[in-house]
Each structure stands twice: as C-alpha cells, then as structure tokens.
Amino acid sequence: MNPLNNRFIFVAGLHRTGTSLIARIIGSHPQVSAISASPAPENEGCYLQGAIPHTALHGRPGHYATAPEEHYTESSAYNTLETKERLLTDWRSWFAPEKPWWIEKSPVNLTRMRLYQQLFPTSQFIVILRHPQVMAAALSKWVDTDPQELVRYALDAYDLMATDLAYLHSALVIRYEDLVADAGRVRRSLFAFLSLDDQPTGLKIMDGNRRYRVSADLDEELAARMQKWGYRAGGQCDPFEPICRHPLRDIREAVASATKSERFIKSEPSEQKEQKANIRQ
C-alpha cells in the first residue's frame, strides 16, 4: 500500500446505529473499496486482523464504548509500527489497490479513532449517532440491560467521542435520523467530506426507527443530556447540524453546502425520498 494513493475511511458508531448502512453507501462509490464476502460478521475489519486482540470480551454491545480498557489513544501500547504493519498485512487483501479510499467499518472504531489516526495519519473518520432510546430498543434483542441504563451508556459513549473529536484532524459526525429523512443530502455531505463526486447509490432505505416505540417517560438527567445531540424523550428529534472537522476550509464549506438548504431534521422523519424501503437497522 502506498500511503499517498490509498487512504482509510473508518466508520464508527454504537451497535444498532447504522454503521453498516453508512458503509454500504460510501462503499458504493467507484473510488471506494470496501470489505466484502468475508467470514466476519457484517464484514467488520476488527475480526479480520490480529494486531489488536478482538475476542468475546472485546467490543461487547452495550459495554465496550465506555470500557476504559477499550479506549485506545495516542498513548496506547498498540501505537507502534508493528501494529500498523500487521493491520496493513491483514487488511490489504480485502481491498482493491487501484481505489484511493479503503473503508473499514466496525463499531469498535468508535473507541479507536485516536489510535488509528496515529497509525494512519491521512485517515478520515465518520461517526453515526442514533436516538439513544431507539438504540436501546434495538439493542434489547441482544442484551438484557435495563433500557434506561443503555440510554446512559449511549450518552456516556457520545460524550467520550466528543472529547476524542478534539484530537482528530478529519472527522464527520452525522445522525441516523437525518440519513433516513433525506439520504440524498447526507450522501452528498459524506462524499463532499471525502472529496468525492456525488454518486447515487441505488440503495433502498427506510426509517428503521418506525419499528420501535419508546416512552416519553425518561429520567430528567438523561433527557437533558440528549438535547446536546438534538434528541428528545419519546424518540423525537430536533434539528442538528453535522459536526465536521477537517483541516481544509474548502472541505468544511462543501460539507456545509450539502446540508444547508434545510436544517436537519423534522420532528417526525418523513418517508425516505430517495427510494422506498428495505434496508433496516
């Protein structure tokens, strides 16, 4: 891999927030190579490498994103040339060398962004958020944790991510709700962030939040904390501007231009405008 020709896109987010959907959208671009047909669940790269341990004790849904031992930063013991070379050796065969962008999607990337930036300085990061109550409802299929504790877990993870953003050169934070409300606009902002021409994906997308009913009765502290991300108790949303960090002003302005015609998002998400429906979260 020539670092001048190939760059990583790391997609990050909690489980059940739309990371796979984002990876499909970006991976559909002709200038992007994505992992496919791998033995890993959802083609997650964390399972396809041996540089950083990933066992049943790592990346546990509802746990990993706030576990101090899984928060890897510049001071991590894995911040070594050996780690970088092993990751490249293990991942390289899954990507097309002629494509400038290589996308790797794993939820655990949420707690590895600062380490990955050290290992791959030209990488860019895309984080997707989802309403904490809806995430908790979706995640309840996998874990037995109390729903309000899962909401707290999500908000703690979002706060830790916000702290990490200050250390990242190139990161974009979007919401699942804005994506399903207007996939075209979010797609344009994603490609603008990556300096790519816009390309329709052909993907059929629907609002997976409609599958869940969540209560408006929520701990006051949690309800107040959700407002930072434009979320209200009961699954409702307020407008939210994507957070874009990039060293080039032209890129920041291009992302803003892709989203400024209408503020994200209506209180009740509309049906997907790009196409009707079959990708669910």
Describe the 3D structure:
It is a single chain. With 281 residues, this protein is of the alpha/beta class. It has one domain (7-259): Rossmann fold (3-Layer(aba) Sandwich). It is 32% helix and 11% strand. The chain has 9 helices and 8 strands. It has helices at 19-27, 81-91, 113-119, 132-139, 147-165, 176-181, 183-193, 220-226, 249-259, and strands at 7-12, 32-34, 101-105, 124-129, 171-175, 231-232, 236-237, 243-245. Strands 2-3-1-4-5-8 form a 6-stranded mixed sheet. A two-stranded antiparallel ribbon has the order 6-7. The relative contact order is 0.17.
Question: How are the secondary structure elements laid out?
Answer:
Layout: E1 7-12, H1 19-27, E2 32-34, H2 81-91, E3 101-105, H3 113-119, E4 124-129, H4 132-139, H5 147-165, E5 171-175, H6 176-181, H7 183-193, H8 220-226, E6 231-232, E7 236-237, E8 243-245, H9 249-259
Summarize the structure.
With 281 residues, this protein is an alpha/beta fold.
Number of domains: 1
Total number of beta strands: 8
Structural class: alpha/beta
From N to C, what is the helix and strand string?
EHEHEHEHHEHHHEEEH
Largest sheet strand order: 2-3-1-4-5-8
Cα separation of the termini: 33 Å
Beta-strand proportion = 5-15%
